[in-house]
Every structure is written in C-alpha cells, then in structure tokens.
Hints:
The chain is of the alpha+beta class. It contains 18 helices and 24 strands. Strands 6-9-10-24-23-22-19-12 form an eight-stranded mixed sheet, sandwiched between helices. A five-stranded mixed barrel has the order 1-2-3-5-4. Helix 4 crosses helix 17.
Amino acid sequence: MHAYRTHHCGALRATDASSIARLSGWVHRKRDHGGLLFIDLRDHYGMTQCVVAQGSPVLKLLEELRPESVITVTGDVVPREAGTVNAKLPTGDIELRVREVAVQSAAEVLPIQVAGDAEFPEELRLRYRFLDLRRDRQHRNLMLRSQVISSIRRRMIDQGFTEFQTPILTASSPEGARDFLVPARLHPGKFYALPQAPQQFKQLCMVAGFDRYFQIAPCFRDEASRADRSPGEFYQLDFEMSFVTQEDVFAAIEPVLAGVFEEFADWTGTKRAVTPAPFPRIPYQQALLEYGSDKPDLRNPIKITDVSAHFAGGGFGLFAKVTASGGVVRAIPAPGAAGRPRSFFDGLNEWARAEGHGGLGYIAWDADGAKGPIAKNLEAERVAAIAAACGLGAGDTVFFVANKEADAAKFSGAVRNRVGRDLGLLEDNAYRFCWVTDFPMYERNEDTGQIEFSHNPFSMPQGGLEALNSMDPLDIKAFQYDIVCNGIELSSGAIRNHRPDIMIRAFEIAGYPAEEVEHRFGGMLNAFRYGAPPHGGSAPGIDRIVMLIADEPAIREVILFPMNQQAEDLMMGAPARVPPERLKELHIKLDLPPVKGAKPG
C-alpha cells in the first residue's frame, strides 16, 4: 500500500465498499456525536467522511488535533447508514472507518477559519493567503482560472496561432502607465523596464515572419488598484496577426472568446447566454452618445438620445442657456418609471447631487399627459418631440443631463447605469459582448493643452500619412478597437502602424521629435525598414475574463497571490528594503522623502 494514499479524498464510491483505503489530507471539520467522532478529511480533489468509534486506540490522538492538521488515515470503506447519505458530496454514499492514523503535520490555532463561509478582513486573507486558498470558493476560482487558460490556449492553437515567450527585461515604452524599473548591475546608471505589454516584441514577431503569434503574457504596470485591475502585474492573452484587416482580427478572436464563455457559462450554477459571433460593432462616438461610455453594458436596453435641439431657444430657460453656450442636453429614458413613488425620483436627485451635479430633471407621462417642472415650462410640441425621439409614452419617464458634451456623456452614462439597475432592466444571466471601434488617434490633455495619443501610439491612423499631414489631429480616427463584455473592457487592440514614415509623423504630432522616436523605438523602426507586413492584434485580459465567468466583484478573488490595494504583498513582505551593500553593488543611492512627524537632525 502507498505510504500516503490509495485514493484521493474525492474518489471513493459505493462500489469501493468492503475495501481497505488510505487517504491523506487536511482535517476540515470534526464532530463528536457521543461515542463516534466524525472527521471530514479534505484534499485538492474533495472530501471524505471518516469515522472513529469509542474505544479506538486512535481516538484520543484525533480528538486533540486542531482543524487543518494534515493526517494520513487507513481504514475500511463502508456504506453510510440509511438516512445519513450526503447527496451533496460525490463521496456521500460511503465513509471510512479509521483503523490507523499518522499525523503528518499538526496545525496551530488558525488566524482565519477554512471551514464555513465566514468573512474575514482582506488584510488577514492576504497575509494568510495559503489558508484563504484552501476555502472552497477561492479554490474553485483558481481552478477555473487554470481551466480557462487551458481552453484559451487550445482554441488559439486551433485557430493557427503559435505560442512564443517574449522578454521580461526590456526597455521602457510609452504604454500609458509607469514602468517598474530594474537596475542593470553591469551597466551602472542604466535600467531595464518590466514590460507593460509585449507590444514591440509581438510586432517584431510579425516582421520576423511568424504570421500568427500568441502568449499568455505577464504584464507589469506601476499603477493604482481598482476592482477590475490588480496593482503591479496582470496577465493577458496577447496575440498578433499579419496581413489582416480589422475585421480579420475580430473574426479570429471572437470564436475564442465566445467559445470560452460558452464552455464555462454554467460555472456559477446558472446557465448564461453568450453573444454569438459576430459581436456588435459600435463606433466610439456612437458609444459615447447612446451609452455615455466607451465600455457599454449591453445587458441594459436603455439608449441615450441627444435632445439639444428640442431645448434650444425653448421655454425651459436653464437648458436653453446650456445649448446656447455650446453645451448639450442628453435624454435617458426610464421605461415604466412614471408609476414609481416620489421617493424613487427624490433618491435619484440626491444621488445626482452627491455625484457633484445640480440634480436630475425629468418628464413623466401618465394617462393625462406630461408631468413635472420641465414639462410645465417647455412648449407642448417640444415635449411631444422628445417623447417621440425617445420612444416613450404613458407610464414612462425620461431624465435629462445638460452640460458640456464630454461631461454630459460621462454623467448620462452613469444615469443610464443607475436607472437600468434601479428599474431591474439589466438582462439576467448573460455575457453581452461588443466591439467599440474608430477611436480618436489623439486627444488634448486638459491640464497642459498638448496633443497626446488617446490609445495605443503604435496604431495605424485611418487615412495614413495623408490624414496626418492634412487633418486636424483631433479629427483623425485610428484603426483601434476595444472588446467589451458586460461593461468591462477586456482589451484594447489595433491595426498597427508598420511604416516608419507614418510612425515618425504620428509621434511628431504627439510631441516626440524624430530623434527621440529613433532613440526610444529604434529597434522596431529599424526592423520596419527591412520589410514589415501590415499587422494587427489585441490582448484580452485573463484576470478580467476569469472574474466575469466566476461572477466575482473584485479581480483579487481570481488571482493566486494578489497584492493589496497599496501594491503590497503582505504574505511575503514585499516590497522590502535591501541591505546597503546590495544598493552599492547596483550603484544606487536613496533619496527618500522625509518621514512625517520625524524631528530634524
């Protein structure tokens, strides 16, 4: 017999009755039923109930063991008595009557409990993550992650992609976040950067002639934590393709994403619908107008409408002034909301004020017509035109946001989300995908007034060099696109700029002189000068995909060993100070900010 186990803890069935088995695992839970001690023994695969009778020579040893101690038990597999079968457990038809016990590792008093569903502070969970991961929910999440990655890898290979690994130590690149820098000991004063993404390397794979590349790529960005973004590092399905248009990229990745979500659509216990390919394509400007966001949640049926023309010069003075000064008025329909109590409207008004806005005006229609302060002051024909534009009638309401266009788009999107949730309009049990396309190539920095890249700086501008030379930069669109699911951006992507002359001009508009472009991206520019194919790709986030499938609110729940929101690894004690001799070896002197409250000298 094997030293530790003949079966794992999820393997034994009724057909194994009358045999002798040996199991190893963790003491999950103990129950003393007066004369019988029951132990639930758990391992990676499942749980088996073990029984120790009064008078057994191993009873005292097991009674004294704490939960989460690791033991090996040997005994007889027997059917459970009638009425004690546990249909929730695969091993619920049998139990193991223990003859022998070996304690492999005795546990100390637990800082967090593994058995049960009790909630614990995040600091404790992260500090003792190895215990937290023993809990069923976390264990299932990480197994899901592994299975999702395996499924993605298989589907990408089936689509003709080849997996490569790109460098981790590389040069800094303007990806929109701060780099993590690594001092180069052999080159004093110089630093490597951990890749924010394998952007240049995957494009160089195309120049090298590999045609279809992919990688489950680690990426590193020194940025703040968010619910859908882990600080420090994350993983993405990085892929690139040669001789492709934007639609070719969509056609290649849609079956992969739809297939993965369909494969795990019932992971949470309820089957979820998945948008079939081809996914809807929504131009960026349309997304901002109709959804108030470039990450629209298509489970919400509400569409925003521009009604500026119906208020311009009209009787409702506040909105007339907004339109006269160049602002816009956006209408957010609320189907069936007219019958809601006054508290519904007051609650939305209070929420709007808490968000920094003056309130939330509205018109409600009942059997007798339009109601509310706006309807009283606005001409009847204008009210009727608004109802027609929004497709509203008796029983419906429409809310309004009036402001400068960018601010109105952002807040109307928030109102759309809030109204959709409050009215219960979101489609249940669905993954709704879309592509947002035609992003602007450039944007103006509100603080500096400078023209900057709005997305990936290596994207091909629509219209090529001619557009860069003849158009207002803020009017130039790029072959850039985002894949969005349920209001969460899974990735950005683009058809790349593969021509040195176009790239140098594109960076020049964004304030980078040709010499700097040559210095920072000389490797890629030089490669392009020796024949580069048109190419494009994208990089859906692995962490976000798993978070959506697991129906978790925070991305940390699907990462094996996540950092906290301050980018600290509480379990391993990182980041940590290093000895002075190590800094000297790296030619580094520290210039630390003063400690608050410390006395001078």
